[in-house]
Amino acid sequence: MNNLKAQGFILIDVDVVALNNAGKNTQSNFDNAVGTKRIYKEGKSYVYVSGQAWRYWWRDTLQKTFNWELSPITRDSKIAFTAADPIKYADDDIFGYMKAAAEEIVDEKGKTKKENITVTRVSPLKNSVLVSVGAVTPVENWSSMARQDADSVPYGKQEYSAIMKGMFSLDLEQAGTFATYNKTGFKNLTEALKKQALENGATEIDDRFLKNEKGNPYKLVRLAPDVREKRITETILALKNISGGAMQTNNMGDVTPKFIVLATLNSGNHPFSHIASSGGIKDDIIDLNISALKEVLSDYKNDFQGTVFIGRRSGFFDNKANELSALETEYPNVKVLTINEAIDKYTEQLKKQL
């Protein structure tokens, strides 16, 4: 298999939300005031959702929609770690982990000693933050905790409306595949987990990229094809139902994609990051740049594997519908569909590419 990456670009459209808060707003006149996450670029303010928060929504959706059993978390003093068992827990496989630990073992002479069982795994799923495409100035609104009796307790919160963009990359070769050699960042499994995996349908394959001191390829442990396929496709399918964000009780927002591009590439570069931009008279006027999209489709035509699927929700960028549809004629490897159709068709393609 080639070193393929499932690449995705999404736009979400939210109104009057506060998806990811940043703690106390020290610039507010209210004693009880919460600020939202913001970043500044060229002197302009952009709201964002941290990559960690987006991953939390993603993992939570996989649990609720596809019944993923999430890896339990252990807290030890000031550190915390998951079970670091990607054989049993799909989220350890897809989202990665680090666990520094030691366990007591009995050696051949019957003596008890501690053995280092530190394992790490770089996440096959990498994602950006969700950041507003255009400059946004959140508005501080007054709210109160009030009931029928006693005085109300006022507080302030920042709210905003924005079109936000995000991108992700899922390493198709790394998912469900684990290194066991003792090299920093590469020891994904303990010997016990390696044995367990091989006894339950996993196989050993050659590492195509790294060799040992004798010039022989290291061995990797790969889960059964049906297990890998299930984990990879469900990770992408979860985007249809993804939900989350702070203050959903009073500021519920739909964070499912309203525009999506899904493609398999044979490189780690993410080419779609600038196909949406702010422009026009005001910074908050957002444009879907079809020319930029065409440029990517042309420049990376040799890197795309299979069909590039583009999905758009009706009511979002309706003025671009004809231009998007025309891409199917100009580029034979492009298919323009609804959001859910694009995700479904792309995951069907992935099954053939694994």
Largest sheet: 12 strands, mixed
Number of domains: 2
Terminal CA distance reads 7 Å
Number of helices: 7
Helix/sheet category: alpha+beta
Q: How many strand elements? A: 23
Low-confidence stretches: none
Mean pLDDT: 89
Which descriptor suits the 3D outline? globular
- Write down the secondary-structure element order: EEEEEHEEHEEEEEEEEEHEEHEEEHEHEH
Radius of gyration from the CA trace?
23 Å
Query: Roughly what percent helix?
Result: 10-25%
- Strand portion, in percent? 35-45%
In short:
Helices cover 22% and strands 37% of the residues.
Please, could you describe this protein's structure?
The chain has seven helices and 23 strands. 33% of the residues are buried. It folds into two domains: 303 residues, no CATH class; 46 residues, no CATH class. It starts with a strand and ends with a helix. A hairpin with a 2-residue loop joins strand 6 and strand 7. The protein is globular and about 70 Å long. Strands 1, 2, 3, 4, 5, 12, 13, 14, 15, 19, 22 and 23 form a twelve-stranded mixed β-sheet that branches. The protein has 354 residues and is of the alpha+beta class. Helices cover 22% and strands 37% of the residues. The mean pLDDT is 89. Helix 4 runs antiparallel to helix 7.
Task: Give me the secondary-structure topology.
Elements: E1 5-17, E2 21-24, E3 33-36, E4 38-41, E5 44-49, H1 51-66, E6 73-76, E7 79-82, H2 90-95, E8 97-99, E9 102-106, E10 112-116, E11 119-121, E12 125-127, E13 130-132, E14 139-145, E15 153-171, E16 177-179, H3 191-199, E17 203-211, E18 217-222, H4 225-237, E19 259-265, E20 276-278, E21 286-288, H5 290-299, E22 304-312, H6 321-330, E23 334-337, H7 339-353
Helix pairs in contact: 4-7
